[in-house]
Amino acid sequence: TQLLEQSPQFLSIQEGENLTVYCNSSSVFSSLQWYRQEPGEGPVLLVTVVTGGEVKKLKRLTFQFGDARKDSSLHITAAQPGDTGLYLCAGGTGNTGKLIFGQGTTLQVKP
Amino acid sequence: NAGVTQTPKFRVLKTGQSMTLLCAQDMNHEYMYWYRQDPGMGLRLIHYSVGEGTTAKGEVPDGYNVSRLKKQNFLLGLESAAPSQTSVYFCASSFSRFYEQYFGPGTRLTVT
């Protein structure tokens, strides 16, 4: 069974601080996606990484896929209250588009 | 475009009752998925479909059935609801297996 472990599960920081969320597995994934979910809504895709060692930047967010395609990280620089939400990593498997989700990291950014 | 819509938004069932959750997408996507989300467990795949008329089991299929009679609709059925099925259910669709999944707003189901 493929599993994705996210850490930390909860993070409460002050506006302006930096943070990193980790997503780890013992399995290799064909792709790794990061989603953000706000209360009462469905997840929304932030980024997809497909190549080992790939780094993608989205404004203050930096995503990295591990060289062996087993792990990923999300780094947020100078966090803002608008970054508050649940961050989910999801690994792509097989030929059916099925995703294996991590348990999520709840981020709270205080003004 | 409405994207992915789910009906109903909330529902309370008694143990043993049945119900059907409807997911509709207007993006002409081939792939559709049903997930459940429980606290601390992320999203777990229940069933999925790679095209009209096809369905397949996901990670946690027991107690659920699905049908995809039309490309734009994906139905999730609970024949005999149990308290363990209390959860938030999300439907998602995707153009192909390499593309992002678009999620609906969710259905909050409580089984008493």
Radius of gyration of chain A: 13 Å
Radius of gyration of chain B: 13 Å
Sheet with the most strands of chain B? 7 strands, mixed
Class by SSE composition of chain A: mainly beta
The rounded distance between the terminal residues' Cα atoms of chain B is 36 Å
What is the residue-mean pLDDT of chain B, rounded to a whole number? 94
Overall helicity of chain A: under 10%
> What's the number of extended β-strand segments of chain A?
11
Calculate the mean pLDDT score of chain A and round it.
93
Largest interface: A-B, 26 and 28 residues
**Regarding quaternary structure, how should these chains be classified?**
heterodimer
Describe the protein in words.
The complex is a heterodimer of chains A (111) and B (112). Chain A has 111 residues and is mainly β. Chain A is built from no helices and 11 strands. Chain A has strands at residues 5-7, 10-14, 19-24, 31-37, 44-49, 55-58, 61-65, 71-76, 85-92, 99-101, 105-110. In chain A, strands 2, 4, 5, 9, 10 and 11 form a 6-stranded mixed β-sheet that branches. A 5-stranded antiparallel β-sheet of chain A has the order 1-3-8-7-6, with no helix packed on it. Chain A is globular, with a radius of gyration of 13 Å. In chain B, 35% of the residues are buried. Chain B is globular, with a radius of gyration of 13 Å. The mean pLDDT of chain B is 94. Chain B is mostly beta strands and 112 residues long. In chain B, strand 7 and strand 8 form a beta hairpin. The chains are: A mainly beta (111), B mainly beta (112). The interface between A and B is medium-sized, with 26 and 28 residues.
Tag the structure with descriptive keywords.
heterodimer, A: mainly beta, 6-stranded mixed sheet, 11 strands, globular, B: 112 residues, mainly beta, 7-stranded mixed sheet
